[in-house]
Amino acid sequence: MEGKPLAFRITGLVGSLLLTLGAYLLIIDPGFFYLTKETAIIAIVILAALQAMIQFIFFLNVWREKGPPWNLGVFISTISIILIIVIFSIWIMHHLDYNMMPKMKS
Amino acid sequence: MVSDSKVFGFWVYLMTDLIVFAVLFSAFIVLRNNTFGGPSGRELFSMPFVLTETLLLLTSTFTCSLGMLFVHRNQKRSAIFWFLVTFVCGLSFLGMELFEFSELVKGGDSWQRSAFLSSFFTLVGTHGFHISIGLIWMSVAMFRIYLCPLTSDVISKIFRMALFWHFLDIVWVFIFTVVYGMGHIL
Which residues of B fall within a CB distance of 8 Å from A26? Predict the structure, then answer.
């Protein structure tokens, strides 16, 4: 819980700003990077995941625990639950839409 | 250590809060295209405006971390200064968000317009509500730094507030990507 040095935090800030600006440029003009809409979306999701990792590593300073890594354990199980909720919601709802009778389709 | 178990308890709360946001995100992604003939995200949102909001929040998470650094070093003045900077950034962010909401409602695109806008207002509004709670908590923390000696108990309380603030920043990164970014590309 004790303070990390200043340089460590500045690295975190610079990294997060670069990732955000990169994502912004991708969003504004995917064609400039020779990306289609679908690949651009995959790219910004990857950038968001990297951004979250930077935030968790550089700013959420809860990883250096004494004793068993409880924080990490709760964190990993939560991330799995979140992935299950989000991925399966999208999957199921997409296929519900796909399998509807033609008349009911909007 | 008492404070360690308190930090763990707060960490578990943050993780459950993350699940709340995950559910709201899934609802938003599922309802994203159900605009009911109304405007889509691309027509409604201005990207430079959203980028400004994001930069404000990223800066505030850094200044909050600086404030925490000076709390650990027992330098009260610098700590309060950096938390004050964080507070101002957070307040400007909240102001911008409320401005965006009021512009949408004025233009007839409120949460009643379509399923897309209902889920948008629920997701972004919940984040904004968390930001308001964070701002109240931060002002309390600044008074605490000013008035109390920085014992390990007080430091742990301020540490948990800082944790909450960093957590909100992470949630916003995903709102920026999923709500505004994907909305603009598609």
Answer: 181
CB contact under 8 A, A86 and B26: yes
Q: Which of residues 15-34 of A touch B (CB under 8 A)?
A: 16-17, 20, 23-24, 26-28, 30
In contact, A45 and B181? CB cutoff 8 Å: no
Residue A54 contacts B, CB cutoff 8 Å: no
Provide the ipTM.
0.88
DSSP character string of B120-143: HHHHHHHHHHHHHHHHHHHHHHHH
- List the structure tokens of A18: 């670069």
Query: Domains in chain B, ordered, with CATH?
Result: 88-101+114-186 (1.20.120.80)
Residue B33 pLDDT: 86
B177 contacts chain A (CB < 8 A)? yes
**Per-residue pLDDT reduced to its tens digit, B34-71:** 888 888 888 899 999 999 999 999 999 999 999 999 99
- Rounded to the nearest angstrom, the minimum Cα separation between A6 and chain B is 8
Q: Examine the pLDDT at A1 and tell me if it is beyond 50.
A: no
pLDDT digits (tens, 9 = 90+) for A7-36: 888 999 999 999 999 999 999 988 888 888
Tens of pLDDT, residues B86-100: 999 999 999 999 999
What single string gives the DSSP state of each residue in A16-68? HHHHHHHHHHHHH-GGGGT--HHHHHHHHHHHHHHHHHHHHHHT------SSS
C-alpha to C-alpha distance for B120 and B51, rounded to whole angstroms:
17
